[in-house]
Amino acid sequence: MTKTVASSSSTLTTTIPYPNQWKALSILSLAQFLIILDTLIIGVALPTIQEHFFITQTELQWIFNAYLISFGTMLLLGGRLSDIFGQKRIYVIGFLVLTISSILAGIATSNDILIAARALQGLGAALIAPSALSIVMSLFANSKSEMNKGMGIWGAAAPAGGTAGVFLGGIITAWLDWPWVFLINVPIGIAVLLLTPKLIPQGTRKKGNIDYLGAVSITLSLVTPVYSIVTANDNGWLSAQTISLLSISAILFTAFIAIERRTKEPLIPLYIFKTTRNLLSGNLAMALLGAAWVSMWFFLNLYLQQILNYGAFESGVALLPMTVLT
Length: 326
Prior knowledge:
77% helix; single chain; 2 strands
């Protein structure tokens, strides 16, 4: 927030703290908590969902992948929409999408409906995450020390969500049923939507255009190889479909780079990889970490319940120490 003080000789503009900044931070941290919770809470419930819908391992993967792919590929667009239309507005829309899609996932009558609902959950999370981060940074813009505290609390909500997701997933699946791993979002989402108008500041808006073409090309270039890899065991790694899909993915990614170079307001200004040291290596490291971690999490849950014959609750407890230490 800014305050203008006028004098006979000049006008002085000072920055004053947002009055509800710590209450606002608690709501924003809850959002971060929920995003990571949704990533992991489903893991323990996967074998139960597989038995319920009588689906194959390949089909089961898409329940897990749909959220992550939608979330990861739409983050760039979510951030840009937040800049153009305002952080608070996109934040609210994101929570509406997440809450409604959680209801759809909880009442899903088929695997296809569940996968679609999971993709919508990922879209909601992709709208929430960048807008929440922007609001957190604006809340504490007047003090570097408070900024560090605020970012620390907001960042700590992520591992807290991961730990809670593992443990709650086991408890909910064992004591209630798998739909409740999605329906647990609903009261949280409603509470956030009710508190947001009073506690969250409006944020800022910028004039500009949205690179929809870039968003479409990067999304398709990432979804295509995932689909080709997931189906490669059935179709063959050297089959025409697998090779064609991987080739299409490479073409789409090349098109995305070309679009970003020519667009005046790209989703990713490519020059930042030259001006910001270690940005490329950092992104590659995180990509490799995510590829290893997510796949490990998926198969560990199946291994514990389908090979070692653990129950849902025992699986959640077994995975808890790894989550806490991570």
